[in-house]
Amino acid sequence: MSGAALSRLVHGQPPASPAPTPWDGREPEPSDWPVLVTGAGGFVGGHVARMLAAAGHRVRGLSRRPPAIRLGDPPIEWLVGDLRDAGLLRRAPVGCRGIVHAASWVCLGLDPRNLSQVINVDGTARLLDAAIEAGIERFVYTSTLYTLAAGTPDRPADESTEWNLERVESPYTRTKRQAEHLVLEAHPPGLSTIALCPGMVMGPRDGKPTSTMIVRTLARHRLAIVPPGGIPIVDAGVVATAHIRALVAGGLGTRYAVVGPYLSYPDLAALVHAIAGRPRVILTLSDRWQAPLGLAARCAAPLVRRWIPDLSRQLVAGGFLRLHVDGRRADVVLGLEHPPAAGSIAASLGDASTAAVVR
Question: What ranges in 32-98 are assigned the alpha helix state H?
Fold first, then answer.
C-alpha cells in the first residue's frame, strides 16, 4: 500500500478514485439511439433534447406543459404529462434505447405538499421501473452539485468527497440525493446508469427562468448587494453535450461533476455589469450577515411563499457558500471543453427578450 493510500485510511479520508478513462471520441449513433428526455420542455432538458434531435436522433420529449417551440427547432415527439402519471411513464420509454432524466422538482424553499418526494424520488423510481420493463440500456440522471460537497480553492471537492452541505439541506437537496442513490444503485441486467451534477447552468432559453434568474435580476438593477459565496458556472451547451456522450461513455453507476470556472457572486455581478452595463454599484455582504438574514428568511418564508417560493434559510446559506468543485473527471471522460463564462452569461441575458415562439 502506498504512503498516500495509508494516510487516507488513517485520517478517514475517502479512497482515491481510479484514474478516469479518457473519452475515445465516440458519440451515440443517431440511427441506433432513440432517446426519451424527461423535462424536455425545461432549461437543461430542452437543450439536451434539441441537441439530440438536431444530430438526427429520434427524440421523445416529456414535458409537464406544452413546450415553447421556436422557428427552426428540430422535430421532437412530445408527450405532455409529469412524473406522477404512472401510466404515462410506462408508455414513454417504449421504443427507446436511452433515457435522459432531467425532470425534477426544483426549489430551495418550503415543500408543504411534499412534491419533492413525490416527483424527485417516487417519480424517479417509477421511471426506473419503466426503463427496466422497456429494455432501456442507459439511464442518464440529471443530478445537482448539492449532492456533492464544498471544497476550498486549493482543494476543491470532487465526486468522492464526503458530503458536507448540511447548511443548505432542504427537501430539494435531500430528495435529489435520494434519487441519485436510487439511480446509481440500479443494476438490473441490461441497464447501466450514470448521474451528472451540473454547476450553475448559463445559456439561452431558460424560460421559467431557473439558474439564469440571478444574472437577469442583476442586469435589471443599478445597485446589487450580493453575498460573498460562489459557484461554478457551466455552459448549457456543454451540459447538453455531457448528457449525450454519457449515453455511451462513463462508468457504470458513477456520477460526474459537470462544471466550468468558479465565480464568486461579486465577480458574477461584475461580469454582468461588463456585459449589460448594470448593476452600476456592487456591494458585497460580509459573512456575519448570514445568520440574521437566514433568520429573517426563515420567519418570512411562510408568509411570502406564494410570491417567493424559494425564500428560505437554506437559500440564504447558499449565497454564503463557497462551492468549490473539481470537474476534471467529467472533462476527461466525456471530452468536455468549456467556453469563457462571459459568453454563456451574455447568451443568458441576450436571449431573455428575443424568443420567437411558434407554439
Answer: 43-54, 86-91
Please state the domain count of the chain.
Answer: 1
Rounded average pLDDT per 10-residue block, the chain, 359 residues: 39 54 94 98 98 98 95 97 94 98 93 95 97 97 97 97 96 97 94 97 94 96 98 98 97 96 98 97 98 95 88 94 98 97 96 49
On whether residue 15 sits in a domain, the answer given is no
Residue 317 falls within a domain, yes or no? no
Residue 126 lies in a domain: yes
Catalytic residue set: 172
CATH number assigned to the domain comprising residue 82:
3.40.50.720
Structural domain contains residue 17: no
Cis amide prior to 22 (ω within 30 degrees): no
- Residue 42 CA to residue 117 CA, distance in Å, equals 20
Measure Cα distances from 64 to 9, 58, 99, 223, 353 in Å. 47, 20, 17, 36, 23
Give the span between the Cα atoms of 231 and 39, in whole angstroms.
23
